[in-house]
Every structure is written in C-alpha cells, then in structure tokens.
Design brief:
- By secondary structure, this protein is an alpha+beta fold.
- It is 36% helix and 20% strand.
- It is built from nine helices and nine strands.
- The strands form two sheets. The protein has a seven-stranded mixed beta sheet, with helices on both faces.
Length: 257
C-alpha cells in the first residue's frame, strides 16, 4: 500500500508540518502548517474532580502499543459527531510504518474486552505529536489523554502538540499559540532544551524563527517506558504490563498541575 516515506514524515514533523487527507476516501494527502497551533502544557493538564474519580476507579483497562493499528482504525471510523475523518489508507499505512520503527505510539482504553477509546501520535526527540483521539464510551478519551500526559511527564518529554484547539482539548488544559511560537518551542526541545525559548501565548506575540535552522538528528529521546517502572514500583513487582493503577496517574498529574 502507498505510504509516506518515514524519513520524509519525521522531517516534516521536525519543521512543524503534518499530513492530512480531505476525507477517509480521498486517495491523496496534503501538508498542513496551521497559523495557530494547539499544545497542552504538561504542567497544565486540568484534572477535574470527576475525571480524577474515573481514573482512580480504574473504570477502563489502559494499555499502550498493544493495538496500534486497531486504534488508528477506530479513530478513522465515522461517528455521529464526526461523519467523516481525515485518516485515509495512505495515512494509516504511513503511521503503521512509524509505529514499527518506534516513532509512533498508542494509548488504548478497554472495557469488557472491547476497545472503546484512546489516542495515537508521533514521537520525535522529547516532543509528542498527538494525531487523533476517539471515545466510544464516556470519558475514554479523557482517561487516555491523562495517561498520556502522565507517561510524557514520567519519561521526560517537553512538548505535547495537539495540532488544533477544540473545546474538548481546551477543557483539559490545551492552549492555542501562534505557529512561530510553536516552532520556537519545538526547535528548543529538539535541540535538547526545555521548550522555554518561545514567547508565551498570553502576550499574543510570536517568536521570529526566520533564519533559524531546524535542529539535526539524532535527538535526545523521551523514555516511553518510564511510567511502567513507576507502576511496577507501586505494585511492588519486578515487572509491569500496561499502564499503572489510576491512583498513580492521579498522583503524578496532581504533583505537576
């Protein structure tokens, strides 16, 4: 099946660009560079009292990277609130290749053995680029995002890109910044910094990145498995599979919010 070359795809992400299709049946893709970009500051995740209860109660079994292709397929499915999606066969094949190379990950929420929600995205250095999230059960996507943020915090990530701001993401702490500001943050992270090189969104000012070269690989990578070690420690086990119990996630998010 036709797909985007992984090196080209990762190079695009390093420059603040990502691919989309006009529809699930569209055979082509185009490159997108939004004028305004949504990010979720990792120390700004909004853990509401009600969401905390859902997480601590472990209403969903949460896993990572156990059903990547199924997660992408679920995100691509039409729904009542989203009759069509931008995930076409080229997109699906391209991100499957990235997953097999270790540059894409998924967070899955299960209930009674069925996949009912989650998300997937791309990793490059210590930046995570969220691609799509879906919920087929109440709070499933919120729980998946909470687990993702906790995993990124534990693993040393510095940037969580959400692409476009939605009311759903805003309620969880996402903000919108100018693309120039986003690029300054991204370049800082890829260069080994903490992403603080950019002007804050509150000022409405963008950072001029004209003439600044995109950092070259290799990039310092985050540790995707660091959260699993915390889960093992909390359970008093030598090994741990799946995300830690919800109370570990809630504690980690509370400490950083």
């Amino acid at each position: 099946m036709e797909s985007i070359d992984p090196a080209l795809l990762l190079s695009a992400y390093a420059q603040g660009i990502f691919p989309m299709a006009d529809g699930a049946d569209d055979p082509s893709v185009h490159w997108v560079e939004p004028r305004l970009r949504a990010i979720l500051p990792l120390d700004g995740f909004h853990l509401s009292r009600s969401l905390r209860k859902v997480i601590v109660a472990d209403r969903f079994r949460v896993t990572t990277d156990t059903a990547f292709a199924d997660m992408v397929a679920l995100c691509a499915e039409p729904a009542d609130d989203r009759p069509t999606t931008w995930i076409n066969p080229v997109i699906r094949a391209s991100y499957d290749r990235l997953f097999r190379l270790g540059h894409a990950h998924s967070v899955e929420c299960w209930r009674d053995g069925a996949l009912v929600g989650g998300l997937y995205g791309v990793t490059l250095g210590r930046a995570f680029f969220g691609e799509s999230m879906v919920s087929r059960a109440r709070d499933a996507s919120k729980v998946a995002l909470a687990h993702l943020v906790a995993r990124l915090i534990a693993g040393g990530w510095k940037l969580l890109d959400c692409q476009f701001l939605t009311p759903h993401l805003a309620s969880l702490g996402a903000i919108e910044i100018r693309q120039a500001d986003y690029l300054a943050r991204l370049y800082s992270v890829l260069a080994g910094g903490d992403g603080s090189a950019a002007v804050g969104a509150e000022t409405g000012a963008g950072t001029d990145v004209a003439g600044v070269s995109v950092p070259s690989p290799p990039f310092v990578a985050g540790d995707w498995g660091a959260l699993d070690a915390l889960g093992a420690a909390a359970a008093g086990a030598e090994r741990w599979t799946g995300s830690p119990p919800g109370y570990v996630i809630a504690q980690l998010l509370t400490k950083t919010s």
